[in-house]
TrEMBL record, chains A, B:
GO biological process per UniProt: tyrosine biosynthetic process
Record has Oxidoreductase as a keyword: yes
Family: Belongs to the prephenate/arogenate dehydrogenase family.
Record organism: Scardovia inopinata F0304
Protein name listed in UniProt: Prephenate/arogenate dehydrogenase domain-containing protein
Residue intervals of the Prephenate/arogenate dehydrogenase domain: 21-305
Domain of life: Bacteria
InterPro entries according to UniProt: 6-PGluconate_DH-like_C_sf, NAD(P)-bd_dom_sf, PDH_C, PDH_N, Preph/Arog_dehydrog, Prephen_DH
Length: 356, 356
């Protein structure tokens, strides 16, 4: 272990950003492999490890220092250790990591649900070193051969923080995202992240799957299939991803997904009743309820048409009160603002996203 | 009225295709205007009429003979009269049409639900002259100024037939679609059409609307909005069309939409229960049920990747038994085959679509 780390309680109000020169990525699949290549491209020292190692020669030629075992990689004392394995592997890896990890190393991950990982990390006694993260990037492929350094172009990340989260470790993860991956992030707690992910991704995947199920069971399936056009294609595209992967994704966030599915079921049943009873008042409300979202989207389209694709909203500088950073950055996220750059521990550049 | 029409009971087995040189389009909005321009481009005599006439100069320059009144247009004795007004206007127009229409003229329409129009036509005493039609084309705009002759490029039409449908009138509509609009069609009865349209379009529009309603009411709306990416965008695109138009579309096909919404609600509620109870058997079934559709789509993608975008399946020639044409063409549709060309009253060229 090296002793030159800068993370110490005493300097948490220093105006210097914490050291970040090396990162280790456990799991070099689509996301881990893409992140490792991206960070290596941008000059970080990147260690990598994966259970399957047949692609190591290609990974090495992308600038990744491939390690024979997880333990070897952890013992290299990276500033950041990123877990990018499937979620179900994490409980087995954490005790092995804990045994070898320098307490100065910051542990993070890129899993698509955050409460479950947080519980695993707490159980393994690593909560003090941990800051969760989730990049909004991906496609329907998998494995290192599908990964690439540009998969994360323009990705927005969520960094998840808990009461125990250390600010300097948070800054390290934020620096990796902004300074090295050239991405942006919002800061949320794990429960809010999982609620939001269920709403925008996990539940819609289940709904899309339910739609193609209706076609398969339909007595007019082939006629419907022939006549299907844009709206059907859009709404069923995500149902074409591997059903095993979708099932796993939903099972990892069961409470939030289940609760939203119930609300959707109630809403569709009420709409059905309103159609049966010609309940015009209900129908009007159902179709008008989403107008705040529609108007925001229509406004985005108008701006796109007026100013073109590359209009970037203005950035502004936010001064961070380091004694209240979690509340402050949480409120920034609730206002649909992201952090695009960390200028110092007390100054960040933020950007406005479309909002309701 | 002219007396040179060729539709007579006596020659229904003739090998000559029925006369088709002129068409009249009532309602020159997005669909009617696009069809009128397309048919005029391709050499038909096209009459047009609309309630609002401010765009007539532009329509005339597109080759449409614009008429001051519906009655004037009907009295021009077109071979085909196409109703392309909003559905809710049809009940008022039909008696006016009936008063002036040459019995030789074939009446058709382009409405997005077919049972309702069929009932209106029967009520108006025009069923003997009528063959329903519905082109799968459109976008989120409306009005003549949004119309264009290429809106219907590659469109597939449904022609709807009933027990009373006359074969030569059917051939006229089929000729308009294939020979003049350069499109294809399938043949179905009105109930099957409305069931299929509810499945692939009307119900999914309602589901998409229910999705954006969930975001508007979410306590984490702005975080979710910021983090939303491809799957959310795809599944909510159709919810961005005018809610009034979506409401009208669903109200025009209430039974089929209501029934599918109930099935969707049951399915989502069962899935929610299965997540709560970790009912792995149910979850496996839910995610595997759509595999026949997935496999068909994956195969399409594979062919696209292998042979490129423009791979056209082979056509084959179908011999029509004119005493059994409805069953024969209905079975062609159920096998996901479309008619691409009418060679003679007893020979059609058909094409295979992807199927289950």
């Amino acid at each position: 272990m090296t002793g030159d780390k800068t993370i110490e309680g005493g300097d948490s109000c220093s105006e210097q950003l914490p050291q970040l020169t090396s990162v280790a990525v456990a799991g070099l699949g689509l996301i881990g492999g893409s992140l490792a290549q991206r960070l290596a491209c941008r000059g970080m020292t990147v260690y990598g490890w994966d259970l399957s190692q047949d692609f190591y020669p290609q990974a090495v030629s992308s600038g990744i220092r491939c390690m024979p075992s997880l333990e070897d990689m952890v013992r290299a004392d990276p500033d950041l250790l990123v877990i990018a394995t499937p979620l179900k592997a994490i409980d087995d890896l954490l005790p092995r990591i804990k045994k070898e990890m320098n307490p100065q190393t910051t542990l993070t991950d890129v899993g698509s649900v955050k409460q479950q990982v947080l519980h695993s990390v707490e159980k393994a006694g690593l909560a003090d070193s941990y800051v969760g993260a989730h990049p909004m990037a991906g496609n329907e492929q998998e494995g290192f051969y599908a990964s690439s350094s540009d998969l994360m172009d323009n990705a927005l990340w969520a960094i998840t923080v808990a009461d125990s989260t250390d600010y300097r470790r948070f800054l390290q993860v934020g620096q990796m995202i902004t300074a090295y991956a050239s991405n942006e992030f919002i800061t949320v707690d794990a429960a809010i992240h999982d609620q939001a992910a269920a709403l925008i991704s996990h539940m819609p995947h289940a709904v899309s799957t339910a739609l193609i199920n209706r076609m398969v069971e339909s007595p007019v399936a082939n006629v419907a299939y022939s006549l299907s056009a844009g709206s059907w294609r859009d709404m069923t595209r995500v149902a074409l991803t591997s059903p095993e992967r979708t099932k796993a994704m939903i099972e990892e966030n069961p409470q939030e997904v289940s609760s939203l599915l119930k609300t959707m079921a109630d809403s569709l049943r009420d709409l059905s009743r309103a159609l049966d009873q010609k309940d015009n008042r209900y129908l009007d409300q159902f179709f008008a309820f989403g107008n705040p979202y529609r108007q925001s989207q229509w406004e985005q389209r108008r701006l796109m048409n007026q100013f073109g694709q590359r209009t970037e909203p203005e950035h502004r500088t936010l001064t961070i009160d380091q004694s209240d950073w979690k509340n402050q950055l949480g409120s920034v996220s609730r206002n649909a603002q992201s952090v695009v750059s960390i200028l110092s521990p007390s100054q960040m550049e933020i950007k406005q996203y479309p909002h309701l």
